[in-house]
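INFO worker-7 received task bundle
INFO bundle size: 2
INFO processing item 0
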Amino acid sequence: MSTLAKYWKDFTPVENPIIIFAIIVLIILITPYFSRRLKVPAIFGLIISGLFIGPHGTGLIADNLGVKILSSVGLLYLMFLAGLEINMVSFQRSRYKSIFFGALTFFIPLTMGYYVLRHLFDFPFHSALLLASMFSTHTLVSYPIVNKLNITRRESVVVTIGGTIITDTAVLLLLTIIVASFQGKLDWLFWVTTHYSSGFFCIPCTLGGTKIKPLVFQKCSGG
């Protein structure tokens, strides 16, 4: 075994939060420069860099709670930016298309994934359904590219964003159902709690997009 291979085998991932933060900031600063030199989108370079230093790449950074929080916050921030850019009038006009697109991109991969995992690979019911749910969701990782091209107001983009919101919400609900079913807690109390919790979640989201968001921007622009 070569010296480099032996060293890499004995390498311990970085767990110091300060060093991890410094590495992430360094990547955020230098990746856009090299992306421009290579003529690729900056978000693509950031994704590749994250895969390279992550636990499934070189393992430079440990897969700890802090890294998971940063990755989750990054995805939520992209969805937050997309929500701010949505023209609510256009979204209202395209809401049925968004629902249809979200339903297709949720049920078709879920059904096909479950069938393959359950009948061809003989996965247990809960495992097959859980893994299939991973196929039926998508994120807005490429949204910065769309925003840079200034096409966020196009109907196709609005429909895609709406469909993404629907699929992500549906997958979270499905995950809750799978966990409750696996734990034997899928009773009437669960359905009542889920129903009212979903209602309380949808009301502020709807009001936030149509009523609260204009007031916030008005206050911010007014100083």
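INFO item 0 finished
INFO processing item 1
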Amino acid sequence: DQWKQAFDAAPHGTADTLLPYEEIEYPHLQKHDNHEASGQQHFPTYALPVINHSPGGYCLAWPGAVPAELQAGEMVGIEDTAGQG
């Protein structure tokens, strides 16, 4: 098999010896006894100007400091206003 000699065919080492990586820590959600309350989750909402957008994503202007709870790899929802960006 020619591919088994490729440099990236198998990792060399264990997870402890490979390059360090940044781990995203998610807080544990509290369970509610009330089903109605547990179905409603409240997340912070921010109004940000769109600098540009493409099929690859959005470029947003974030004035001031970025919230501490926002981490790389987060899933966000964006509602684009017509004519913006």
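INFO item 1 finished
INFO post-check item 1: The first helix runs from residue 35 to 38.
INFO post-check item 1: DSSP finds one helix and two strands in the chain.
INFO worker-7 idle
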